[in-house]
Amino acid sequence: MPSIDELESYFGDNHEIMYLREKREVFYEDGKKEDVDIYVYKKDIKNEPHIYIATGDWRVFLLNR
C-alpha cells in the first residue's frame, strides 16, 4: 500500500494526517467477501459544506457537471 499511502498523504496514525486507514469487510455481488484497507476522513464533517453525489461516483459526477 505504500503508493496509495503516498497518494493519500498517509504516513501513519498520528494527529497530523487527514485520514485513518482501517480494515473493513466488503461484500461483492458474487457473494464473496474480503477485508480491505480503506481511508476514513478524521474530522466530523456533518456541519461542513458538502455536495451529495447520488451515484457515489465522484468521477462520473465531475464529468456530468
UniProtKB/TrEMBL annotation:
Q: Which SUPFAM superfamilies match?
A: Gamma-glutamyl cyclotransferase-like
Cite the Gamma-glutamylcyclotransferase AIG2-like domain residue spans from the record. 2-59
Q: Where is the signal peptide?
A: none
Q: Which Pfam families match?
A: GGACT (PF06094)
UniProt-recorded name of the protein: Gamma-glutamylcyclotransferase AIG2-like domain-containing protein
Which organism is the protein's source?
Thermoanaerobacter siderophilus SR4
Task: Tell me the organism's taxonomic lineage.
Answer: Bacteria, Bacillati, Bacillota, Clostridia, Thermoanaerobacterales
